[in-house]
Amino acid sequence: MVKYQEAELNDIFAALADPTRRALLARLEGEDALSISALAQPFDVSLPAVMKHLNVLSDAGLVTREKTGRTVSIRLQAKPMSHAMEWLARYEHFWTERLDRLAAFVEATPDADPDPETAKSPKRRKRPKPTAKKAL
Asked: Does residue 7 contact residue 59 with C-beta atoms inside 8 Å?
């Protein structure tokens, strides 16, 4: 079961990794269903390229296709994203806890200056200037 979940998460994150696929999902978010040609209309890519993106989204379970006559309608399926959100929530808790501890440490440090412009930089030793060699 764990391997199935890992494969499902891999497919979801791979599908969401592409900006065109995220834009396709965003278009579907506000609509009940769109035909493939209506969905592809605002994108500056070919219809076959949109079809390939939809195949990736479909394989990840993020969209479903429904054929009525000659028209194929695409619908958003948000349920698989809940699995990804659950996975991300675990790491959100992890990082929130770590960042809270870091903030407490920084606030407790007496010499901490939050303004980088007024913070004193460490003193640097100056290098001696090279001397010119005199010609004999």
From this structure: no
For 62-86, how does the pLDDT look when each residue is reduced to its tens digit (9 = 90+)? 999 999 999 999 999 988 888 888 8
Q: Which residues contact 15 (CB under 8 A, 6 or more apart)?
A: 21, 56, 57, 59, 60, 62
Start-to-end Cα distance in the chain = 85
The pTM for the full model equals 0.64
Please report, for the domain that includes residue 46, its CATH number: 1.10.10.10
How distant, in Å, are the alpha carbons of 16, 96, 103, 111, 122 from that of 119? 41, 27, 18, 9, 10
Report yes or no on 130 lying in a domain.
no
